[in-house]
Structure formats: structure tokens, C-alpha cells
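Example 3.2
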Amino acid sequence: MDYTHEFPYHKRKTDVRKTSLILLNDDVNDFDYVIDCLVLVCSHTPIQAEQSAVITHYTGRCVIKEGSFLDLMNLKKDLSLYGLNLEIR
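Structure, written as C-alpha cells:
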């Protein structure tokens, strides 16, 4: 007789919710300034930062980073010091 009892909760991975840092459009900062901030603070490549800036300009928002809430709070605080508008979802 084979006793291989499976517990379903052992197979499940912990459901870690992805949190997103979203850059919001504003009429204050120009493209070059936003690109420089994203490269400096978020370690984006210049092309990635430019694409995020363009998407934000045309759609009003763009996800620039995903991760844990605490990591994103630190990035939000740093980017807010540079005058960028952000939200975490």
C-alpha cells in the first residue's frame, strides 16, 4: 500500500502581489529632465527611459518599475525629490 499523501498548500507558492511604480504626466518637467532622472535613480537605459517618457506623455501614465512595496517607496521618495509625479499601485 502506497501512502503518498499530497498537501495542496505545500505545492502552492506564496502569492506575492506585484506592486507597480507609475510615472504620471505633468506639464512642468521636460523630456530630457525626466529621462535623466529615470536613468539616474531607476538605473534605466537611456532608450528605456526615453520610451517611458514618451508613453507617459501620450497616455498620461507609464509603469516604470515593478517590485516590492518597500523598494518602490524608496524609489518614489527619491524621484519625488526631483519633482516627478508618481503613484504606487
